[in-house]
Amino acid sequence: MEKEKLKKTILLIEDDRNTRNGVFKLLNKKYDVTVAEDGIRGINVLQRNSFDLILSDIQMPGATGMDVLAESMKMNPAPPCVLITAYGSIETAVGAIKAGAYDFVSKPIDVSRLELIIERALESKELKEENTRLKKQLNEKFGVENIIGKSSKMAEIIEFLKQIAPARSTILITGESGTGKELIAQSIHTLSGRKGPFVPVHCAALPSNLLESELFGHERGAFTGASERRKGRFELADGGTIFLDEIGEIDQVVQVKLLRILETRIFERVGGSESIQTDSRIVAATNRNLQEMVQKGEFREDLYFRLNVLNIELPPLRQRKDDVPLLSKSFIDFYSRENGKKIEGISAEAMNFMQSYDWPGNIRELRNCIERMVVLSRESILQVSLLPASIREKVMPGSGKIQILKSIDALDIESNEKKLILKALDETHNNKTAAADKLGISRRTLHRKLNEYGINH
After folding, report:
1. Is there a single domain that holds both residue 351 and residue 304?
2. Whole-number Cα distances in Å, 298 to 190, 214, 250, 261, 302
3. Total tally of structural domains belonging to the chain
């Protein structure tokens, strides 16, 4: 049986009995309506209960509709308030809207208009609540508590983030690929308290002519295919944060325009002449050495100085190996949920290998490695045999390849091959994909060999 949907709640405050009864009969079929005979009673009810919408007359003895509105505005979140006004007091109703009322209806009440206003007010309330929920989820996902690390270097970075996030100054995040620069940028935006959106731009993913349009927007007819005006990322990020990833990849033309925005906060769309002002906070990131690029003439020195007002240098994972267990646990938990598995942890032997490895791909490589291990594992504990052979070989040469046992006749190729396959299957707990990887053959070839040697696994 389908669960009945709860009705939206409305507080109706009206001192005129005929109007009150008529509106109640109209709305009570669709909504859960509570009635108050005057403003004082209405405020008392409002203080003890929460409602989805307030519908109140303006002119009432004791406490007016404006008093009701003021009381409703104290609530968090404040419910939308629709006011009922007598003919000839439109100016008062307009003043009420300026004070925070959602809308008003005039007496005699137009039923269709009232129903439409209430529907729109409730829809607006739901959208605001959904937006609040989404912002809360983003805060939970990108807050500093989600920057995983107990090393002294990461502790310093987190404290620095808290200090600089509320400022408007431009920030340059530097570090090798895969060190988590975008997460840091998102955390800065979350901590900043800026009301606008976080807008990322991956500069290396677009050719220079498209990047210019992407950043600044374009007017209709600005170039072939520009059939309509389009806002750029700087316009969309107004009031928020624009994240320019791989800033070292932009060409000299875009560098000049970017320098102007940093200095004046003003730009024009491609093909346009109208100057547009933006209040976006710029956070840039790169895995390249911009100082060397400046010396080679590949990057403007003045732009470099404007970008590098505040600098955050993220350490590579090889310099924070104490964080590998914490990061691994986080990824294990995530990918276990994603794949519907119950992985409890990782073996001590596997963790020793992981902490001995330098992770040239940094956190991104570790995350991909853990995802692979979780997917391939048939046990609740991730074993060292699930680590990619390349990692095992780098840490302990020879451990990534299966050696032929001395007890096997070196000239008996078929026997050797069968023994190797059985050993690989045993070490990978009968995981054929992992066994094929250890043997350096495809899964299809492994299946063919199993059939050929009559191995039932």
Report:
1. no
2. 33, 22, 10, 20, 12
3. 4
54 and 170 in a common domain: no
* Domain span at 432: 413-452
| Residue 235 · residue 278 · CB < 8 Å | yes
Helix (H) or strand (E) holding 276: strand 275-277
- Which comes out higher in pLDDT, residue 412 or 149? 149
The tens digit of pLDDT for each residue in 27-42 reads 998 999 999 999 999 9
Rounded Cα–Cα distance for residues 40 and 250 (Å): 64
Local structure of residue 321 (DSSP, 8 states):
G
Is beta strand 266-268 parallel, antiparallel or unpaired with respect to 275-277?
A: antiparallel
Residue 269 has pLDDT above 90, yes or no: no
Length of the chain: 457
pLDDT at residue 5 in the model? 56
Distance CA 440, CA 405 (A): 18
CA 402/CA 423 separation, integer angstroms = 8
Residues 110, 76 share a domain: yes
DSSP 159-214: HHHHHHTTS-S-EEEE--TTS-HHHHHHHHHHHHT-SS-EEEEEGGGS-HHHHHHH
d(CA 278, CA 252): 22
Question: Does residue 345 have a pLDDT over 70?
Answer: yes
Query: Which structure tokens are listed for 387?
Result: 């680590």
Phi, psi of 200 (to 5 degrees): -85, 145
Asked if residue 435 lies in contact with residue 421, where contact means CB atoms within 8 angstroms, the answer is yes
Q: Is residue 49 part of a domain?
A: yes
CATH of the domain at 89: 3.40.50.2300
Q: Are 379 and 340 in contact (CB under 8 A)?
A: no
Examine the domain organization and report whether 89 and 220 are in the same domain: no
Query: 257-290 burial by CB neighbour count: b if 16+ within 10 A, else e?
Result: bbbebbeeeebebbbbeeebebebbbbbbbbeeb
Neighbouring C-beta atoms of residue 405, cutoff 10 Å: 10
If you average pLDDT over every residue of the chain, what do you get? 86
Average pLDDT over residues 259-275: 87
Of 350, 367, 395, the position where a domain reaches its end is 395
Question: How do residues 305-319 score in pLDDT, each as one tens digit?
Answer: 999 999 999 999 999
Residue 181 lies in a domain: yes
Whole-model pTM: value is: 0.60
